[in-house]
């Protein structure tokens, strides 16, 4: 029996075991069944070939070998592609496994990245995904899918369990196998430990997280951006997804509200208490922001007047309900990705309906914010949340009947009010499609394949209808003055426009179009100020919000100024410096150089070395040119006339490495600036900081 035949047998046997696991059996009986299975297949000694040499690895200091580094370990190979929502769902299961069974206990999880889209084969893009999803186990970029083809794998995700000498023991296809994985791994470790075959050695881990931007002055993997109109004027709302928070700022980038963050959690309360987990899309209504709290599988409501966050749908855990119909927090959801508010007219009434791009279920759902009468005069009670489009089967199928249509991970949604349609980015089919808000009909606009089962028809081609080729679009917005759709063609790193009537699509920004400064890296969100001719882009992997002025034809990075509020107790390393500057006013320029008492430690040239500055007193008399920057750039503070002593507090976030490990350190610099009569108006200093 060859390897692929063994895989097929393991899949069949695994399905039988899964059926038995669903029965009302005792845990001991379930473990007995799994042990019998493991003993049977370990005797077959069907071992797999090792990883190909020369592949790029992440989270480890060197490439791993199944028969060297992983000998004596139970190994879970997770075949995934980072675009896939089902693969994302599996990560939480793997996280549970890693917490239950450590490397020293004998379990090692290895992500085998087997890309669907060409963009995903790029190791730089994969690194960003590993950081974005906070993957801490080893990952190998199998760009040719050599292991995938060798084993005969056919879908993402697929997990394969290996014994301590590389023997095939179990296969799990798709998501939803957490309990089975826990039992299989626990039984395998106990069994092989009884045979003295489990090794307790470490492996050479080196997490990729140390290469991330650090410090409070940054945003991290922003996913979506939205415009908020209030009586006080226009604001921007940014999903700072990597920091698990929502930022509300003015159009100059001055942050007014930080809601949630930095660590993931699921908690209602005021802005300081509330927590999110990987928030994505948002929609605004008056002074309220609705948030798709994706990894919490919930819809959250931010009230800017009350300064509170509450959950209005979802339970905090992923559900498998493809119908819905319950009220609010009684209704389970699955990875809501984007939101749009449809203002439904019925007679003299206008009622808001929150449409949800439910990526995890491959559907569109509705949350009724008021009692509503909608399709076929059906009445919906306030708070009702249910599926309105999609069967739940992942496909690219259009249909007159909305629940018979098939969607493929819808990840962006917008309302074209004048046309009475919702337009959505169907990311896994690489298509743009629409929902008629009066009849429920789902139709194709452009991109994707004519074959509803073909989710691999992608590319980067302008054109009309099916002649258009896209690559995993995520962001979408309606331009009410131009009556066209703007999309972020995410994996092509471009912004494109679509005429809904003619179904024509054209790239207008990105990859050097219209000139060299127009560069994006997996842009995921877009918002439009039609009156001012401004387009805001969540440029995800560049950790930035970009602003395009369509009238001037230029692009700029929005300087996001996040207030830095630090306490001396947060830093173990605190340094004090004093300087003087003229009482007539002046400018301080200061650079810091880092020296380590451990001579083996050196700053990592490939990692971000950052500073953030906080002006703690008399903010009206002095200003910082930038609130954050690279260690190689000076901190510049301008002082007005006065004779006071000012305290400039600077946080240095640095990454230093030895030969085999990297560490991050946070340093607090307290810089006391005294304004005196005989001092210079321009002070330039370079200060040495000695780090223990």
TrEMBL record:
<feature type="repeat" description="NHL">
    <location>
        <begin position="520"/>
        <end position="551"/>
    </location>
</feature>
<dbReference type="InterPro" id="IPR001258">
    <property type="entry name" value="NHL_repeat"/>
</dbReference>
<protein>
    <submittedName>
        <fullName>NHL repeat-containing protein 2</fullName>
    </submittedName>
</protein>
<feature type="domain" description="Thioredoxin-like fold">
    <location>
        <begin position="72"/>
        <end position="167"/>
    </location>
</feature>
<dbReference type="InterPro" id="IPR036249">
    <property type="entry name" value="Thioredoxin-like_sf"/>
</dbReference>
<dbReference type="Pfam" id="PF13905">
    <property type="entry name" value="Thioredoxin_8"/>
</dbReference>
<dbReference type="InterPro" id="IPR012336">
    <property type="entry name" value="Thioredoxin-like_fold"/>
</dbReference>
<keyword id="KW-0677">Repeat</keyword>
<dbReference type="Pfam" id="PF01436">
    <property type="entry name" value="NHL"/>
</dbReference>
<dbReference type="InterPro" id="IPR011042">
    <property type="entry name" value="6-blade_b-propeller_TolB-like"/>
</dbReference>
<dbReference type="InterPro" id="IPR045302">
    <property type="entry name" value="NHL2_NHL_rpt_dom"/>
</dbReference>
């Amino acid at each position: 029996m060859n390897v692929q035949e063994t895989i097929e047998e393991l899949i069949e046997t695994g399905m039988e075991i899964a059926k038995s696991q669903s029965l009302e059996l005792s845990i001991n009986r379930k473990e007995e069944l799994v042990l019998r299975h493991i003993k049977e297949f370990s005797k077959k000694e069907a071992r797999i070939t090792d990883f190909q040499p020369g592949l790029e690895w992440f989270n480890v200091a060197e490439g791993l070998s199944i028969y060297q580094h992983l000998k004596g370990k139970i190994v879970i190979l997770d075949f995934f592609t980072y675009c896939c929502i089902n693969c994302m769902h599996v990560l939480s299961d793997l996280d549970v496994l890693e917490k239950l069974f450590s490397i020293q206990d004998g379990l090692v999880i290895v992500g085998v990245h087997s890309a669907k889209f060409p963009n995903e084969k790029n190791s730089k893009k994969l690194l960003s995904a590993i950081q974005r999803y906070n993957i801490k186990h080893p990952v190998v970029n199998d760009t040719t899918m050599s292991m995938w083809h060798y084993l005969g794998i056919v879908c993402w995700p697929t997990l394969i369990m290996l014994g301590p000498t590389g023997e095939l023991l179990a296969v799990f296809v798709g998501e939803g196998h957490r309990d089975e994985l826990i039992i299989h791994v626990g039984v395998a470790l106990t069994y092989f430990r009884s045979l003295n075959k489990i090794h307790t050695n470490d492996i050479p881990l080196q997490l990729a997280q140390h290469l991330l931007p650090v410090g409070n002055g940054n945003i991290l993997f922003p996913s979506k951006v939205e415009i908020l109109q209030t009586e006080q004027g226009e604001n921007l709302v940014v999903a700072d997804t990597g920091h698990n928070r929502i930022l509300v700022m003015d159009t100059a980038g001055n942050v007014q509200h930080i809601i949630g963050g930095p660590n993931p959690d699921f908690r209602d309360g005021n802005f300081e208490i509330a927590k999110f987990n990987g928030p994505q899309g948002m929609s605004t209504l008056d002074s309220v922001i609705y948030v798709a709290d994706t990894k919490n599988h919930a819809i959250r409501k931010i009230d800017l007047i009350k300064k509170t966050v509450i959950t209005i749908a979802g339970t905090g855990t992923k559900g498998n309900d493809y119908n819905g119909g319950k009220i609010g927090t009684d209704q389970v959801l699955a990875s809501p990705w984007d939101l749009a508010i449809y203002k439904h007219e019925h007679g003299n009434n206008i009622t808001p309906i929150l449409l949800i791009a439910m990526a995890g279920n491959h559907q569109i759902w509705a949350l009724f914010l008021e009692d509503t009468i909608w399709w076929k005069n059906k009445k919906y009670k306030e708070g009702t949340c249910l599926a309105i489009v999609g069967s739940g089967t992942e496909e690219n199928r259009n249909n007159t009947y909305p629940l018979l249509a098939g969607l493929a991970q819808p990840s962006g949604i917008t309302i074209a009010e004048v046309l009475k349609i919702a337009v959505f980015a169907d990311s896994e089919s690489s298509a743009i499609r629409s929902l008629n808000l009066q009849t429920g009909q789902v139709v194709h606009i452009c991109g994707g394949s004519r074959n509803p089962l073909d989710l691999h028809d992608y590319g980067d081609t302008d054109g009309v209808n099916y002649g258009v080729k896209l690559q995993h679009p995520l962001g979408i917005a309606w331009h009410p003055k131009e009556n066209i759709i703007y999309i972020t063609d995410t994996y092509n790193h471009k912004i494109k426009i679509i005429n809904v009537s003619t179904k024509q699509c054209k790239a207008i920004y990105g990859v050097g179009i219209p000139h060299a400064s127009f560069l994006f890296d997996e842009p995921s969100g877009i918002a439009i100020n039609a009156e001012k001719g401004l387009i805001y882009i969540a440029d995800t992997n560049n950790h930035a919000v970009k602003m395009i002025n369509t009238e001037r034809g230029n692009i700029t990075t929005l300087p996001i100024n996040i207030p830095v509020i630090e306490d001396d107790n947060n830093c173990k390393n605190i340094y004090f410096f004093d300087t003087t500057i003229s009482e007539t006013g002046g400018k301080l320029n200061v650079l810091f150089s880092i020296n380590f008492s451990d001579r083996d430690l050196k700053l990592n040239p490939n990692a971000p070395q950052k500073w953030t500055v906080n002006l703690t007193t008399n903010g009206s008399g002095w200003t910082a040119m930038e609130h954050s920057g690279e260690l190689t750039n000076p901190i510049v503070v301008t002082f007005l006339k006065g004779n006071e002593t000012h305290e400039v507090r600077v946080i240095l976030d640095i990454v230093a490495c030895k030969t085999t490990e990297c560490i991050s350190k946070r340093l607090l610099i307290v810089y006391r600036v005294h304004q005196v009569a005989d001092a210079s108006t321009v002070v330039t200093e370079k200060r040495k900081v000695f780090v223990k």
